[in-house]
């Protein structure tokens, strides 16, 4: 049992930190604490990513509509996530540093397929599913050189910003966030912010750090829009409720008025 416990702890920290904590009982080692915190955050983000876009998917299914969701934004987001996942996998980075992108890629691909399906393009939805599966195999199956993935990763920042901000523009143009899920938006923001720290701690890769910083900014814009349009919608509902009794009171006298009888003309 002790051996299993040690193996598990060595997954969370290196041998030196294990000895510091469990042999020398030095619990104030700053480097070991940051490493352990980063690993714990990474695993927590991966666990959360399993369900992060499920509220969005269920909202589309419940309404049988993808109104207000920008397909362009979803596809750009999917491309950025897929490139980031492939780049991290081929580089051999720890799974705790990028594992959430695997679940995010799957869920984003499902959303893209549903947008096409509910938009009336059943054939395109099927073709997209096959095409995306083939792309993932090419990128992660050893068929794409690492230097190509590095170049593609370099395009991730503008792609992420363009994709997320095009969704923000769609929200602004529609005056609402449509079928976007608030839970998904806020979870994505929290995850991208935490990933800045884990990328610094576990990989030190500047490209990954910049990518997550840009993603956090774009996610923050959409989260703020979610709050703004949520509050605006609540105010409109309150105005409607306040106006309803006044309208009913004004309509009541008009409904009870009797029409005046026409005077008969006498010869």
Short description, anyone?
Its main location: membrane. This protein is an all-alpha fold and 267 residues long. It is 80% helix and 0% strand.
Assigned CATH architecture of the domain at 156-230: Up-down Bundle
Under the CATH scheme, which class of the domain at 156-230? Mainly Alpha
Contiguous helical run count: 11
Q: What spatial form do the alpha-carbon principal axes imply? A: globular
The largest β sheet comes out as:
none
Series of secondary-structure elements, N-terminal to C-terminal: HHHHHHHHHHH
Radius of gyration, rounded?
A: 27 Å
Overall mean pLDDT stands at: 83
- Spatial gap, N to C terminus: 117 Å
Secondary structure category: mainly alpha
Q: Unreliable segments (pLDDT under 50, ≥5 consecutive)?
A: 263-267
Task: Bin the strand percentage.
Answer: under 5%
Q: How many strands?
A: 0
**What is the name of the CATH topology of the domain at 156-230?**
Monooxygenase
The proportion of residues forming helix, as a percent range, comes to over 70%
Subcellular location: Membrane
Organism: Anopheles quadriannulatus (Mosquito)
Membrane topology: Multi-pass membrane protein
Main location: membrane
């Amino acid at each position: 049992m002790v051996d299993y416990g040690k193996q598990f702890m060595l997954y969370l920290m290196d041998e030196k930190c294990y000895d510091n904590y469990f042999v020398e009982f030095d619990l104030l080692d700053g480097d070991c604490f940051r490493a352990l915190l980063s690993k714990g955050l990474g695993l927590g983000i991966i666990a959360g990513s399993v369900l992060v876009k499920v509220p969005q998917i269920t909202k589309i299914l419940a309404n049988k509509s993808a109104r207000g969701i920008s397909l362009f934004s979803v596809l750009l987001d999917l491309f950025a996530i897929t490139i980031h996942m492939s780049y991290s996998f081929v580089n051999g980075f720890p799974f705790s540093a990028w594992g959430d992108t695997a679940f995010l890629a799957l869920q984003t691909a499902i959303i893209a397929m549903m947008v096409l399906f509910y938009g009336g393009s059943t054939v395109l939805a099927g073709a997209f599913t096959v095409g995306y599966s083939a792309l993932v195999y090419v990128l992660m199956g050893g068929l794409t050189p690492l230097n190509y993935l590095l170049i593609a990763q370099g395009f991730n920042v503008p792609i992420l910003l363009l994709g997320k901000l095009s969704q923000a523009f769609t929200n602004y143009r529609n005056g609402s966030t449509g079928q976007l899920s608030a839970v998904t938006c806020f979870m994505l923001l929290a995850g991208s912010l935490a990933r800045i720290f884990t990328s610094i701690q576990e990989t030190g890769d500047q490209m990954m750090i910049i990518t997550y910083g840009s993603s956090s900014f774009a996610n923050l814009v959409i989260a703020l829009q979610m709050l703004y349009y949520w509050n605006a919608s609540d105010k409109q509902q309150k105005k409607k409720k306040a106006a309803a009794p006044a309208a009913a009171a004004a309509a009541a006298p008009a409904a009870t008025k009797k029409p005046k009888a026409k005077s008969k003309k006498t010869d």
